[in-house]
Amino acid sequence: MPLSILELQHRGCVLSLFDEGVVNDEFNRIYSLKKTREPDCVVKLIEEYIVDADTIISELSSLIDTPNVDVTKLGALARKLEEKSQRIGAEHMRAASADLIQAYGQIHKANFSRALAGVSNEFIYTKMKFEYFLKLEQKIIGERGEGSQT
Q1: Which partner from 67, 73, 89, 130 sits 20 to 30 angstroms from 23, CA to CA?
Q2: Which domain of life is it from (predicted)?
């Protein structure tokens, strides 16, 4: 596929991320890093975020299903997820994590479980959007021959 078409699709993807509120201005700041660093640094940051968020959500799901829930650990993980989401500019995930933290503060297992289901659903959607973004980003990097030489 010609580079110009890929770039056009990529711009549309980025606009869609903003228009849908999936990301915020922090994502824009992260995205601008590729001009001053390795071209694939944004790819690496987003891939790392996806792995970390998935791990945290899995851990939260496992913990909430235990009979004697360690509420302190639940709160710490929920805050960690919010922080990671905030750092990458994943606005929907940040907001869903904030709801999770609020549910944690209520110390009500059913509310926390509902909020965790919301976070899980939001993560599936955000991950899908990020994966499409990454696919286009990696194609563009490949077309330009800009991949990091590791």
Answers
A1: 73
A2: Eukaryota
